């Protein structure tokens, strides 16, 4: 039986919101479960310490530290939200969960956070509909993609199989809405577009529209909680090779979003016109937004053809629709004005020398 759960990236947008929802749930499944929150800085420790959870300051990419955190705290489940890009971190954590399994004799679990955009042609995935019930692990291996997120997905399953740890993979789409964590409350993409528009007093869009999968942070956090509950209740749900969950509630039409951002910024006097311009180049977009140049097309123009099945089969019922989302773009702008603490660090691992 799982008793102790470690949440990595607990000061982050997704991890903070998941932690907050896990603390708020009245589910009997979580009775007696102790939550551990991994954060990177002392300020984050202070911010989270009021929650009454065990906050651990650590660099989870350090092998010794990660192993010690799992073994000393007798962690049976890790909810990993700190990086979809670096395979090394999940490998370390899964190895530690394997050791913990040997010591305790109990099954251990790893919930991975990945990226749904990898299942789009712009990211190198073959054309056509892709469901999370498809044999994705086999397909990912067959493709032999060099995409770091795909390589990490493969490593997660392979390492889990090797150490008899059960894992699930949440393929996260474009997330929006204000998070409920104690530190970072804003997402990656939409706040970056708003931040850059304010800074340069101009709103840009890509020359091609895209409509990627999307989800409100409250619906996404609910899916994590459902998965944790199902695992705690030892329900027979898809895991490991078949454990992929597309956390997709609806789509996010970029050009309509950018129009909404331009109108909201113009109404506040933050841009001189409510017009949206085309990025002069992808390189400039990548530089301004702080997104990796290699993935800027996928991040800015991909739609993909993903169909979520597994999460809905578990009873997940997202409350936010595309219509409600588009009506809330003004709130997205206001949230940046109220809560922005700057760009996420998640892409820095691709360019460690610039850190
Ligand atoms: N938000 C989205 O729209 C979205 C979409 C698709 C996929 N995802 C994926 O979901 C994951 C979480 O995203 P997010 O929006 O929550 O990002 P985030 O707000 O930047 O959260 C990531 C957290 O992990 C922490 N972290 C990273 N490396 C660490 C390390 N070595 N040691 C300790 N802590 C570390 C970060 O610490 P610092 O605060 O010190 O940086 C941060 O608090 C990412 O992998 C991202 O790729 C997100």
From TrEMBL:
Gene Ontology molecular function terms on file: aldehyde dehydrogenase (NAD+) activity
GO CC terms of this entry: cytoplasm
Domain NAD-dependent epimerase/dehydratase: 5-230
Listed InterPro entries: Epimerase_deHydtase, NAD(P)-bd_dom_sf, NAD(P)-dependent_oxidoreduct
Pfam family, one: Epimerase
Protein name as catalogued: NAD-dependent epimerase/dehydratase domain-containing protein
Upper taxonomic lineage: Eukaryota, Fungi, Dikarya, Ascomycota, Pezizomycotina
